[in-house]
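Form 12-C: Joint structure prediction
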Amino acid sequence: MRVGIIGVGMTAFRPTTPESSWKELMFEAASRAYADAGVDPREDVGSFITCAEDYYEGFGIFDEFVPDQLGAVLRPTCTVSGDGLQGLATAFMQIQTGLLDVAVVEAHSKASDVVTLEGVLEHGLDPVWTKPLGPHAFVVAGLEADAYVRAAKVPRKALDAVIEKNRGNAILNPIAAYGARLDAGHLKAATPRFEPLRSLDVSAPADGCVVLVVASATAARRLKARPVWVRGIGWASDSPTLETRDWVGATYARLAADRAYRMARIRRPGQEVDLAEVDDRFSYKELQHLEAIRLAKPGEAGPHVARGDFALDGRLPVNASGGSLGCGNVFEATGLHRAAEVAVQLRGEAGRRQVDGAKIGVAQSWRFVPTATGAVAVLGVGA
Amino acid sequence: MRKVGVVGAGMTLFRRRLQETPKELCYEAAKMALDQAGLTLADVDMVVSGSAPDAFEGIHMKGEYFLDGCGGYRKPYTRVFTGGGTGVFSTIAGWWHVASGLADVVLVVNEEKMSSCQPHPQSVFAHIWDPILDRPLQPNLVWIFAMEMNRYMTVYGIRKEDIARVAVKNKRNAVGHPCAQLPDPHITIEDVLNSEVMAWPVQRLDISPPSDGAAAVVIASEDAIRKRKIRDRAWISGVGWSIDSTMWTDRDLVFPEYVARAAKMAYKVAKISDPRREIDFAEPYDPFDYKELHHLEGLLLADKGQAPVLTREGVTERDGDLPVCPSGGLMGVGNPIAATLGIKVGELFWQLTGQAGERQIPHDVRTGVAQAWGDLMQYGCVVVMRA
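Section 2 - Result
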């Protein structure tokens, strides 16, 4: 049974949203998605899925606060403690069972409400082995960047090219928080953070919400929608323990991509994929993830980006949305935002950042430090 | 819809404080469930975990932290979280992994370690309220459940001793459970009625204890069950789940409509039109004694306000017409929130495959229902299983 995205709703991503609560952000994105899909949540939707983590939300049980603003009261609703793409995978499976034919996936960030983000992330470290050492959680990214950059021989200018490209693309994206035209002077002036990472290598938090309406082919026909098909989806986790995980190859992304490509019957992703949205919450992650999901050969993502191959008009546009570096880090909504961007691109509705003629796009997610978990969705339009 | 069955279950001891880390608890339960199914981790396609607030363990993204203990290393792994509902909900998530055709064998592991939360896990529940409307009143769970219990008693004129019977039944049923934290073969109604008042009408022995523990089930497709010649299996024939409004103050607490919605969904999937005739035994969520009664009504197994009568008449005893919580329930075995999987879905599996030992219902049972309840008195999820 085919499953497709029939509605996309997003708020703007902004560094702070003092006039709206997270409930209001959810309501806004959901209203847009329902209008886009032409569905009434109280009648047409069989399941609602929220992707959230308690500590980001500041609640003991965040699931409690989901139903009202989504129109999900007295309806099947649940929380997946995962990235938005894991939520999309959940909707995909629920529809595949035949139990229901329309599902809604929601993920959001109200990062501006988080007073102690550093403390929250620190509590994600292993309480016995790692947290007692007292590191900032971004040390994990610094160590991994170092391992990857050495193994793949990535020059500093390749990381700078990622930052310049993504912040630049974000200028063309009306919802992005951090669009900027950076020059060599800005990049050089970036301050050292978690060696080899510098301040501009790290995406800044943003508020925002993304809602997708997902439907079976039959329901899509009934609702007269033009679906963007979920042709393949996969998710996977590597070791949570720092001592035993793969520090170079982003194994979670490779395993997730293998599943998604197999389901989508894609054998040579490098040739078959028209555009990609990959997690770039640290600049090196974009390159590492592209190699892991086989959109670049090992060690070649750096030279590609430096040559402009991943630019909007390049061979394979990557993070046309502006990515997390350009749009902001929206935590668990990051992967769902990327799926939404691919859907909007495949529909040809991406405005000034439109990639022409794209038929197959890939969205890839990672659950941020200190995890080694991620997902990949292959989306497509046409027969 | 693909046919899906439970083929193994495992659980750790439920105790006030266990020495094991959350990862180790997950491992113990997962290993036990796989051993019972005669499978190894290599046979498992995907892993689902369930756990309630991160704040109990004090670990952000605790699902990520204990995923290797659950067997999630280098596999597709997802954690679901619906408050106390997670106890049964993770099985529903495991079901859709298999029923969708994406996986043939799924391991579901639920874990809770409440003792890390000092001085008492109740303090986590200070952070489950609406920050503007509820939190300034400094409510706690015993307090609002006292309101719900009071409403239930007042509307139907239910006597406290009829509710206390549930505590007595379940703590006695738990005597046969090797993992039980509070079994008591000698407990009487008077003991419950004379226990310390927490928030009237809730008394100490009306409440299940906070616990540490983990539980796991293995879920497999019909094909996988046949191919691997697995003998002991119980089919998951219906699933349902429903959430009510966050605004608990805006609804009548006398009846759990969200449980009824979840039950109707599950019965429809299981093609059950007359639950009272077709369901042989039940494992409703019983963190408080009155909740068992409340949930029996929500599950449409008793008329509104009539569940205490069934209990008084012995219908819900292990050898009654409708055995309820033959495991000993949360009241007797313990309440490590999500890990109650072992005494809800786990108990259904063991009873339906005749492996419940001392707890085995003496007459033949073919269809059972398990239910959990969570969030702010707003979440219901239901699983129907058949032999």
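Section 3 - Comments
The beta strands of chain A are 3-10, 47-51, 77-80, 102-110, 207-216, 228-237, 275-277, 360-366, 373-380. DSSP finds 16 helices and nine strands in chain A.
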